[in-house]
Specification:
It contains 14 helices and 25 strands. It is an alpha/beta fold and about 575 residues long. It holds the Pfam family Pro-kuma_activ.
Length: about 575
């Protein structure tokens, strides 16, 4: 008996001397190989510091989604009863079990993380590459984008402790690679045109689009909004600055009926700024502010400049701006964004997490609008693609409104660059099932195998997007892009919100359930044009909804009636 005890003690000592037992890690996310355009340059230096973010599994998102639809479907008894900050956070916050499990694991690794989201579902910490490789059984390496030269430290796979499965949603940035062109303004230099136009629209609209053209074309009112609580937010990224002197010149030339001193309010996050030297004026930022201030007459407009001190890594401020708005007791009722990227540039988990952030903001009563992109079926920008069409992000997210582009006046037709198609990450939402099914049935064998026939379709709506006049550094120029269409449509939503609030009603909030039901007949149906790409003609605009122009372009008078005014 004594000999056995000694043997047992000896084995225990040997085990202790052998070091800690191997951790039980399981593969959590991976990608098949280096994404197109990147090459592996070298192994990352073990001493290089990585700023990592951990997303915890969110609480009860299924119930939050139900709550979102309850307040967004016009036939619901809860329609318009948007949730408070506290109510949304109660749905989203991770369980205490998840918080404890992840923090205990981090503590065992000698790490203290900071919370970086209102609901506590995102944590952030910094570790050297050597520690990150050990913690996640990863191989962080230096990858170079051959065309731009941009470098990033990433891994093609990572693992997490088995006991954290169901508690830890994702680690970022890991397998999601930066897209060097993800936030390029989707604008271009247009060619002159001469079109036959309706007698009710100024003849000049045959060559260029101005606020007056849009007011006449869509019936947008010129009378000033009256409700100071009704606010419109414009997002700004990649050092795109909105110039107030250019806005003054724009209003002086195109909105002589209002004060040229009308301007926007600046808000900044992530070290953002908005210098006012003429040489700093950004085409995208000027476009977005000139066609919100210049169309949404009298609506308080906010330009939110996102700097380069991102807290969300490769999302480059996309999640930061949502968290910024979610941290407010009363966020702006409309947010328009004219930036985007290809859906396949990010991991499904990361894309879904950002989409859930839009769900939260929609439940709070904010209408979220995004330009659909400028690459037709080849993605956010024109380019080569393989055997399949490239959907854009975040247009495929079902909790926002994607805006495509049209051109021409009599009739309006689809702009050939208008990105549209079907998501590979999200299925067809309930509000869209009948129209998507109908469109796909009509396609027959056209483009078969090139798109996901069970995916969420986009865009949802459209507006003018070619030869739109703006002022940049004192000079007038024309621009093209769905980035023109998004602020135009957002301005119309803001004007409707103003009338609703004045009538004692709630703002529209998440638009899509309304757009595809009561609002479906309030659009000018676009039935010609297509969005070519990937060596195909892409999709074609047809009667009803289509993945080029969505439901069509707005008719303000009909929208007023549809919202109950």
């Amino acid at each position: 008996m004594v000999a056995l005890s000694i043997a047992l003690l000896a084995s225990l000592v040997a085990l202790a001397c052998a070091g800690p037992a191997p951790r039980n890690l399981v593969l959590h996310e991976s990608r098949d190989g280096v994404p197109e355009g990147f090459v592996k340059s070298s192994t990352a230096s073990p001493d290089t510091t990585l700023k990592l973010r951990i997303a915890l599994v969110q609480g009860d998102m299924a119930s939050l989604e139900k709550a979102l639809y309850d307040v967004s479907v016009p036939s619901s008894p809860l329609y318009g009863q948007h949730l408070s900050k506290q109510e949304v956070e109660e749905y989203v916050k991770p369980t205490q079990e998840s918080v404890d499990a992840v923090n205990q694991w981090l503590s065992s690794e000698g790490i203290t993380a900071n919370t970086i989201s209102p609901a506590g579902d995102w944590l952030q910490f910094s570790v050297p590459v050597s520690k990150a490789n050990e913690m996640f059984d990863a191989d962080f390496s230096v990858f170079t984008h051959t065309e731009s030269g941009q470098q990033a430290i990433r891994t093609l796979s990572y693992s997490i402790p088995k006991e954290l499965v169901g508690h830890l949603d994702l680690v970022h940035p890991t397998i999601t690679f930066p897209n060097p062109y993800s936030h390029l303004p989707v604008v271009s230099s247009p060619a002159p045109r001469n079109l036959t136009i309706d007698a009710s629209v100024p003849s000049s609209c045959g060559s260029t689009i101005t606020p007056t053209c849009l007011q006449d074309l869509y019936g947008i009112p010129t009378t000033a909004a009256t409700q100071s609580s009704n606010k419109l937010a414009v997002s700004g990224f990649i050092d795109q600055y909105a110039n107030k002197a250019d806005l003054k010149s724009f209003l002086t030339k195109y909105r002589t009926d209002i004060s040229s001193a009308t301007t926007f309010t600046l808000e900044t996050i992530d070290g953002g700024e908005n210098p006012q030297d003429g040489s700093d004026a950004g085409v995208e930022a000027n476009l977005d502010t000139q066609y919100t201030v210049g169309i949404a007459t009298g609506v308080p407009t906010y330009f939110i400049s996102v700097g380069d001190n991102y807290q969300d890594g490769d999302l480059e401020g996309f999640l930061d701006i949502v968290n910024y708005l979610l941290s407010m007791d009363q966020p702006q009722q409309v947010l328009t964004t004219s930036y985007g990227q290809n859906e396949n540039t990010m991991s499904r988990s990361l894309a879904n997490n950002l989409c859930n952030a839009y769900m939260q903001l929609g439940a709070r009563g904010t209408s979220i609008l995004f330009a659909s992109g400028d690459g037709g079926v080849s993605g956010s920008q024109s380019g080569s693609c393989g055997s399949k069409f490239v959907p854009t992000f975040p247009s495929g997210c079902p909790y926002l409104t994607s805006v495509g582009a049209t051109t021409g006046i009599n009739p309006e037709v689809a702009a050939s660059f208008s990105s549209g198609g079907f998501s590979n990450y999200w299925g067809v939402p309930s509000y869209q099932q009948s129209v998507v099914s109908s469109y796909i049935s009509g396609l027959g064998s056209t483009n078969k195998g090139k798109y996901n026939s069970s995916g969420r379709g986009f865009p949802d709506v459209s507006a003018q997007g070619e030869n739109v006049e703006i002022v940049v550094d004192g000079s007038t120029e024309g621009v093209d892009g769905t980035s023109c269409a998004s602020p135009i449509f957002a301005s119309i939503v803001s004007l409707l919100n103003d009338e609703l609030i004045a009538a004692g009603k709630s703002p529209l909030g998440f638009l899509n359930p309304f757009l595809y039901s009561d609002g479906a007949s309030a659009f000018n149906d676009i039935t010609s044009g297509d969005n070519p790409g990937c060596n195909t003609n892409g999709f074609s605009a047809k009667s009803g909804w289509d993945p080029v122009t969505g439901l069509g372009t707005p008719n303000y008078a009909k929208l007023r009636t549809a919202v109950g005014l």
